[in-house]
Amino acid sequence: MIYVRNNAAKQWILEELDHRFMDGAVRILDLGCGDAGEWAAFLPTHPETRVVGIDTDARVIARGRASFHAEPRIDLRVFDAQERLTETFDVVVAMSAIEHVVDRPAFLRTTWSALRSGGTAYLNYDVGHFRSRDVKERIMVPVSQMLAMVGIEGPYMKRVHDAAFRKQAETVGFRVLTTKKHNLAAMKKIMKGAEEPAILEWFAFERKLNDLFPPERLDPVMLSTTLVVQKP
Q1: Helices (H), strands (E): how many in the chain?
Q2: What does DSSP assign to residue 202?
Q3: pTM (2 decimals)?
Q4: For the domain that residue 211 is a member of, what is the CATH number?
Q5: Residue 173: φ, ψ to 5°
């Protein structure tokens, strides 16, 4: 089943959750959830799943609440993932999020405190902002970092380096399970609007690439990375 048509990273995370939990009861925390649209196709086929989504953008949370008004199993809140939560979850996900986090160690501590012992986090980040040929977007990267220094964190963008982020996660106490690369740039571009059989072939191709090559080899051609960690 396709959950997310044009993002192999998000699709991979949701497929992993489907494989691990199937029809079992699971509580998921989505950090930086936006309007939580990724869960629209997932929740109907996973009746025992409960999702709490948090984001600092009140407008996207309002849009998500409107979309899921008839779905009691998803709870969307305005909250900063750099601050700790008191609840615990089986899984934490952050999709296309880490590159927008100012205080990544604080974000990782939130992830740690929110996970039960043995819980798993799927921490995903993109590099598209930093490889873009769009002049405005390239200018916005350093500007967003300067704005964050005076407390304006909404537009923040800073590239995530795999080794540094992995070390930060290990420092918090996480055990790194794997690193996956997604969204082959050329494929992502040509697959917009493609039919389902073609999209499924794309997803399968990327899974095979991850089986054949280490993440370092795939990094130059992939736009997205998922670090999978576990709380011992």
Answers
A1: 9, 7
A2: H
A3: 0.96
A4: 3.40.50.150
A5: 125, 0
